[in-house]
């Protein structure tokens, strides 16, 4: 009997070692090595359907090498993208689903990954053959969730409509049904893909599948890596579009080795607050489109509903603006989103003041506070400072710096910024207002929503925007223009200086 050998695999980076270490030598993560027992070669050959006789009879000659082709010699076969039925999802994917692609969707538990994919599979099943592999739930559990979401009702209504017709035309075809496969073994899933040959398949989730040729437990590094590699080859060879659900770790990354993200064509993250209604689908890798695109959905009683105009979701009431509120235009990929920022500056009761952010980078807030104190002269080092974005939208680009700075000063001086004014610009360490990208796209979005004034960095002039554009070069100039108006008590006055002597 052959002796079983064990090796250790890092669950963070996937590196393999022959002995155990407290810290992974490859990625320096502590207590991440897990022991895995390697199956004997003969057992692997039997499980994979090969025999020693077939391997002996196989030719040992060198494989015939393929000659390289120039780019012009490669035949051009344009493929039309498939529509998922959701415009927001098609936008994140780069214009639709590419046939034969492998898409990985990750997100926190309970955020709505399975809900989105089940609704998408239902809409795709009206036009294409669709298979939903539920490795974490039974068929009855998925059926209960489908009834709650209203999945399948459209197909039944269309089918009844076809049957009611007296003389249907030859081109009339009954809508396809959604195929469901509750299975965790990869071999069975591959056999069903080979037999059914669907156009689109959903795997929920990759951590629940296991490959019988491996002795490790489901969800381990080797299992996740091998299952994804096999599914990737099936998707390319049989031209099947695969959507794979992946769990995330407590740090928010896809569970398993990083090679999992390298194997797939597209990586999408489904994020949002579980206690809020909106959800964001963000693209971080896309071989067929732009990265950092977002799609906005809203969780309702009947599942997820797409939000075609997310600016209205993240824009507060412009009739009742309070001191410390400012409006910016953030760009997520090629989509401009108007977001309201709120700041609160108050005296501290502790020896060290508190700084808190929601949707804004913490280090960015500290940098803006230092610039306001050093370059503008506002004493904020002994005051508590809180900054939040409306709806909790994560805004990480520097174009929000000017809005954060003016909202902090407005809260400190108890001033109200004109709710019809948008603020766009990056704040430099010297107190300058620097230009940002996609300025014309941001201004068009603000003008479409009815804003009348925009404070922007000095640079190329923009005309025919339908709004007043005021270029500034320094933060102090932008603050003086933005705070010239009405105070919080409603009295009209012009603020001549930012600080009294």
CATH architecture of the largest domain: 3-Layer(aba) Sandwich
Sequence stretches where pLDDT stays below 50 over 5 or more residues: 41-61, 155-175, 487-501
**CATH C-level label of the largest domain:** Alpha Beta
Mean pLDDT comes to 82
Report the oligomer: single chain
Going by CATH, the homologous superfamily of the largest domain would be: P-loop containing nucleotide triphosphate hydrolases
Shape: globular
Q: Estimate percent helicity.
A: 25-40%
Q: Strand order across the biggest sheet?
A: 6-5-7-8-4-9-10-11-12
End-to-end distance, in Å? 90 Å
Q: Give the class from helix and strand content and strand pairing.
A: alpha/beta
Largest sheet report: 9 strands, mixed
The total of helices stands at 13
Strand content: 15-25%
CATH topology of the largest domain: Rossmann fold
- How big is the Rg? 28 Å
Number of strands: 23
What's the topology here?
Elements: E1 5-10, E2 16-17, E3 33-38, H1 41-47, H2 52-57, H3 87-92, E4 102-107, H4 113-124, E5 130-134, H5 139-149, H6 153-164, E6 178-181, H7 186-196, E7 200-204, H8 221-238, E8 241-246, H9 259-263, E9 266-271, E10 278-286, E11 294-300, E12 303-306, E13 325-332, E14 335-347, E15 355-358, H10 362-376, E16 383-389, H11 401-413, E17 421-423, E18 426-427, E19 433-434, H12 439-448, E20 453-457, E21 468-472, H13 475-482, E22 485-486, E23 492-493
Parallel strand pairs: 4-8, 4-9, 5-6, 5-7, 7-8, 15-16, 17-20, 20-21
Antiparallel strand pairs: 1-2, 1-3, 9-10, 10-11, 11-12, 13-14, 14-16, 18-19, 22-23
Helix pairs in contact: 10-11, 11-13
